[in-house]
Structures are given as C-alpha cells and as structure tokens.
Amino acid sequence: MAASSRVSFLLLCLVVIQTCLCFAQELPFQWEDQTPWQPRQQGRSRHRLQQREECDLWSLTAAEPSSRFQSEGGVTEYWDPNQQQLRCAGVVVVRHVIEPQGLLLPAYGNAPHITYIIQGRGIFGATIPGCPQTFQSESRGERHSGRFSDEHEKIRRFHQGDAIAMPTGVTRWVYNDGDSRLISVSFYDISSFQNQLDGDLRKFYLAGTRQLLEPRGERRIGGHLQLEGHNIFSGFDQELLADALGVNVETAKKLQGLNDNRGNIVLVDRSLRLLSPEYQEEERRSEERRRINGLETTFCNLRLTHNIDTPSETDIYNPRGGRMTTVNSQKLPILAHLRLSAQRVVLYENAILAPSWTVNAHSILYVTRGRGRIQVVRDNGRLVLDQEVQEGQLLVIPQNYVAVKKASREGLEYVAFKTNDNAISSPLAGRTSILRSLPVEVLANSYLISRETARQLKHSRRGVAVFGPAAATMTSRRDIASEEDVAVVQE
Fold it and tell me: How many CB atoms are closer than 10 A to CB 332?
C-alpha cells in the first residue's frame, strides 16, 4: 500500500514538473504579445532575408508613378512594385491627391505604413479594434438642442509636414477640409512581420471602388494580376448581409456600391460636421506623463502624428547648408511597434549631404521639392546611380550602400522612409564620421598618405553631415574651418 502511494506521489510530481516546464516555455511568448502589432518571436521580427537575392542591385534609378487611379474627388498613384529596387526594400509606395472637400473612403491594409503630408491639411480617423468610442458629434439640425447623435473614435488633425504612422489592419479615412489640394505619399512595409499574407499590398475598402486609367482595368502587384473590384461588402449575398447587419436589403445593396462609380475618393456635398479639437499637444503631454508615471501606453492613446517640418524638431542645422529632422520610436513611440521611421532633409542651394550609409535599414527617398544630384556606390565600389533627381521622383538606397547628395541652385528637399524604427546613419565626413574615429596611423597606412595628410583628412570637416556650398568650393583650410564652425554653433 505504501509503495503504491509513493508511486502515485512520484507520478503527480512528474505531472506538475512537466506542466511547469510547458508554462515556462510559453511565458516569453505571452509577454512579447502585449500588443497585436508586436512579433511573437524575435527571430521572426522581419522576413527581409527572403528578399536577399532581390538586393543584389547593379543599377538604381529615380522613378515616377506607373499606375494612376482616377476618382471623383482625386487621384491615387502607385509606383511599379515589380521594380527590383522596391522588391529589395520590400515596400509599396502610393501617392494621393485629394481635392478640397474630398473624402478618402475608409479602408485597411495588410501592412503598416507611414504617410508624409507634402501639401495641405485635413482630418483623419483611425479605427483601432477594441478602442472606445469617446467622441461625440452633432447631427445636422440639432446644434441648438444640445443633444448628440453620433459616437465614434477620436478624430485627428494633420498639417503639412506631418508624418502619420498607421498599424496593420487599422481602418483609416481622410478628409480634406482645406482650400487647396491635399497631397501625400505613403510607404507600405509589405515585408513586415505584421503581413501574414504575401508580397502584395492588399487594400480592403469598406466603401467605394477603384478605377485604373490603363487598358482593361487591370494591374500587376507583386507579379500577380489583380482586377479592379468593389468594396468588401460587394462579395456577400445581399440577404445574408442585410440579416447580419440588421438592415433591409435595399441598404445592403447601397453598402455594396455595385453601381457606384465615384472611385475611392469622393466629394462631400457639404463639409463634414465633425468634432475635431486641436489636441495634438495635449496628446504629447499626456503621453509624457504616462512615461514619467511608469504606466504602459496603450494603442488607443498613442500619438500617430509627428511634424518633421517644424524648426524646433530639427536635429541637425547648418544656416548655409540646410537641416535634417528624424522621427523615430524615441519621438513617436508607436513606430517601435511598426519598426519604421522617417527623415526630412532640406538642402539649400548647392549644399552637400555627407557621403553616408544606413547601417540597419533600407532608405526610400521621395523628392518633395527642387533638384539635385545623387550618387550611390555598392559594396564592390561600383557606381550604381549617378542621376539628377527632381520633384515627384522616388529612389531606393539599399542598406549599407553609400550615397552622396548635392542640391542644385534650386535646392533639394526630400523625405526618406526607413525600414527600422531607429535607423542608424554612418557618415564619411564631418564631426561624427567614421574617418574622424580612425587613428591617424591607420588612415596613413590604409591610403599610403603622410601622417599630416591623414590628420587633415580626419579633421577636414567640423560640421555634422550637412555642409554649405562655400565649404565645398573653398580651397583655404582657414575659410572652411570658419564656415563650419558657424554650422556647429547653429545646430
């Protein structure tokens, strides 16, 4: 009897130990899955290595959009996703032009993205699953009654220069409430761990249709032919849809929009009457308070926008050369979940941005204004790009490829999207350059130059990354030092 009890006790202990081991194995995944936009395993944070062969690039080019969708209230343009440079970066780029009182209809996608506002202003909604409907709007004719008839998630305002972060699967709509066209460019990271489908950008529209200004109304995305269709409601049986939503069949037909040819951007007859307070600074202060108090910031309360045209946000400034501003997960915490960041660069007339490479990300450049010359060199020293770029063109600079940029007499402005939330740049000239970090003896023996020449090479630039035109053309060491000392003081 005693022997039987001991055996039972040992079996019970084995079961308990096995259960604890299983729980311990599952515990890290539970902690890592604090939000639906975080990877379950660190090793699966990206599948960019799947595009390894795509990044053996021997030629790059600055390109313009290849497809154009015309809608009632604006235009949507795509860059050819089959370009090798875009396949290497694992991204799809879209540009929207929305007319005044134009509404970009609600839609969600299979990839996180950042949108940069090139021109205009407006409001947008981001419907995040599980977040409360904390806003109330007045319906028409009830302004004096004091009653509210509509509840919805918060509405956010944006302006020119804003970078807007958007997670996967979040439904977004945009309304142009300004007096001029709203122009934006969006960069979708289809190689993100959040995309569980394939290498195509898939937009799921809740309303509207898309019309392509090309023969047969078809396009190729990721090598697969896709016919232009309607919104997600259009595929359901009308009676089943009406029963599921609790509406009549006529309303279900309206939702399907089978005879609606306005496209995915429509014009609003009368301006939208929505509650849209200016609370961006309030959001920022609230976010900082939560950090100080050690409280976890939820997605419902995270800021989605950050302006990278604001002078106070500038990271590097040279009064004769230009400025550089970065938004990463340190400034906009939601980018840590998206694993993305962006950089705004403004180069004045004939200014130069130091040769550099991005250590841990691809860079996708979109020129917003002006012209300039860009050269890019790959690992074997081969020049893969030497081109004058201009407004509206797009260019990919792969990870570790070295690039130098010089503005024309018109100046050069661009926004660079990065496939890492804390992208690191390594310059070859200036106060923070790799050459400044190397010992004089190493430089002298590496390049077969004298120690004095190595010392001059090491200290030839006193500024940081952005250099004015005078420093690029002066031959006097004293003049160069004087000009760049000013830049350092002004940074």
Answer: 26
